[in-house]
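Write out this protein's structure.
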Amino acid sequence: MDVRVTPTLGTVGGRLERGDVSGPVVDHDRRADDWRALLRSTPAAFLTLGALLSILLIVSGIVAGQTVTSRQATHSRLLTSVEPLADAAQSLYSALSVADAAAATGFIAGGIEPEEVRERYTQAVGEASTQLVAAAGGIAADDRVSARLLADIAGRLTVYTGLVETARANNRVGNPVGAAYLGEASYLMQSELLPMAQELHERSSSAVTSTQRAAVQPPWTSIGMLLMTVVALTGVHVIVSRISRRTLNLGLLTAIASTGILLCWLLVAGLISSSATRNAVERGGEPLGVFTDSRILAQQARTAETLQLVRRDVTGEYDAMFDGSMDRLEELLTGSAAADVESQAEPAGRAAEARTAWLASHDRVQAALDRGDYPAAAILATGPGPDEAAAQFHAVDRALEQGIDLARAELRGNEVRAADTLSALAPAAWVLTVLAWLGVVGGLAPRIREYL
């Protein structure tokens, strides 16, 4: 017979007391035991494992997808804006330097300057204007320093060309004041325009280097997380197989295969992309820096050589500037990074040989100046002869320009290869992650329903 104990009220010592309350306590304990049993049950374990695997899959998939997308964006930014800006800055400096040297050469000739010198000056000024526009297109929206440099260069270039034209007009009629105008123009170029162009080039070159360094290391974090996910999926598959007494779980095997494919793809693509980026740095970026700096030094030496004649310097200031630039040029070309790349070794060698011949020509110019033979010095420095300083400088400049083109092609080619290696991986990461998650759901849901 079912006997139910009901609570009663009684008095003990004048106080109301509740009777036996064992019924509700027993019910509460039973419900707690039921919950504990449910939490320790196989369906609850499967649900917990499914939730943990889902979180791990989603996190590792998001990290892998974002890593690949970020790498692609880095390569794309380098190819479309950062590296073109560095090249435009280098070309801008070169054009400004050529324009200044051409203006000085025309003044050295006296009277009406030679047509080829005038044409060289005009082309250089036009090239400088073109590179200003090209550089403006590659500046990031938040790069206010580079934008200010470009604006200042553009404004001062207009002032410079005006001073040069005034100097030419006076030089044609034999007015001595032309020398003063040319000196002012040259001072503006040497003290403001060229330093600003060099600062712009240094900033853009540093941006290229830092951008490449961001993509050199393989994505070890993403690879590690995917590896951990594969191990976790494999462990869960073993557990589920033992509990359900089924050797294979197609859903979990699909998840393992999808995550494993993504892991292998990311590992191979990441290593190939990192290797290509490293080649872009070692075979492209570093030699490019050598060739670019060498060309700037050669142009600085040529400017010092022509200004020495324009100003008829007897203090040795410009000759010392020439020697310093040429010594530094030798250091860069001897044992440089460019010499280690077969395709770039030839222009580096030709530049070194032309530099040696240029030094010999400059020594003849200096000897003529030392004996007071200014006309002979002017011819040796600016004449069209193949053994004269102008020809040797152009030989150096052409070799370095070719080296720049080769190094830049090497850099961009490797960067394109690095970007192409990752092109299909970003969407594949999302697809494989979703497929793996569906495999987890499809593998665990039937096993959970078996206990319900």
